């Protein structure tokens, strides 16, 4: 992140209270929903202790409106939202750029993202670590990145894998294995 002043805003969505932080370059942090504004603010300030509440810029206002529409169930594409990821290393920025291309209602895996970046299967762990450290979850849709075999995998946001599952279901992604077509014989 830049040395410029960090500002943040806590706002309510249909999914709970979210937080967003920004500087003069772009959005630096996004906090997925919690049940209270106070909890969201505590999480934001834990990661950005010098941030101050501020009036959002037009770009931030637009991002907030998009987040509200997302949690209301509207298909939203966050790939154009301007971010400041300058504090991330180069490989993580490459991972985040690739993850930003995973569209609403689609998923990929840690391994597939690693392969897309020209890395071997061992880099799947690096992709997983990048997703766990994603400073702008939802805007970089880490919830759309699954473990091998389409398993839900981990999720470091409030609510853990349950929150990840809810977000995917909001997008129409079936995360549970399909029910068998044949009836059980009940032996």
Automatic annotation (TrEMBL):
Keywords: DNA damage, DNA repair, Methyltransferase, Transferase. Pfam families: DNA_binding_1 (PF01035). It comes from the Bacteria. InterPro entries: MethylDNA_cys_MeTrfase_AS, MethylDNA_cys_MeTrfase_DNA-bd, MethylDNA_cys_MeTrfase_DNAb, MGMT_N_sf, WH-like_DNA-bd_sf. Its EC number is 2.1.1.63. It is an enzyme of class 2 (transferase). It catalyses: a 4-O-methyl-thymidine in DNA + L-cysteinyl-[protein] = a thymidine in DNA + S-methyl-L-cysteinyl-[protein]; a 6-O-methyl-2'-deoxyguanosine in DNA + L-cysteinyl-[protein] = S-methyl-L-cysteinyl-[protein] + a 2'-deoxyguanosine in DNA. Residues 90-173 form the Methylated-DNA-[protein]-cysteine S-methyltransferase DNA binding domain. GO terms for molecular function: methylated-DNA-[protein]-cysteine S-methyltransferase activity. One of its GO terms (biological process) is DNA repair. This is Methylated-DNA-[protein]-cysteine S-methyltransferase. It comes from Rhizobium leucaenae.
């Amino acid at each position: 992140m830049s040395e410029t002043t960090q500002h943040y805003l806590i706002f309510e969505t249909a999914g709970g209270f979210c937080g967003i932080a920004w500087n003069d370059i772009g959005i630096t942090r996004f906090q997925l929903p919690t049940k209270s504004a106070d909890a969201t603010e505590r999480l934001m300030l834990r990661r950005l202790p010098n941030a101050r509440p501020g009036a959002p810029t037009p770009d931030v206002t637009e991002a907030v409106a998009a987040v509200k529409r997302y949690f209301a169930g509207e298909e939203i594409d966050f790939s154009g939202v301007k971010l400041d990821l300058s504090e991330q290393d180069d490989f993580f920025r490459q991972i985040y750029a690739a993850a930003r291309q995973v569209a609403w209602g689609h998923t990929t895996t840690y391994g597939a993202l690693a392969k897309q970046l020209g890395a071997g299967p061992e880099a799947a762990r690096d992709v997983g670590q990048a997703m766990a450290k994603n400073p702008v979850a939802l805007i970089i849709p880490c919830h759309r990145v699954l473990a091998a075999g389409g398993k839900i995998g981990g999720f470091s946001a409030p609510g853990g894998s349950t929150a990840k599952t809810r977000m995917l279901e909001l997008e129409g992604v079936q995360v549970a294995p399909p029910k068998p077509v044949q009836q059980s014989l009940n032996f």
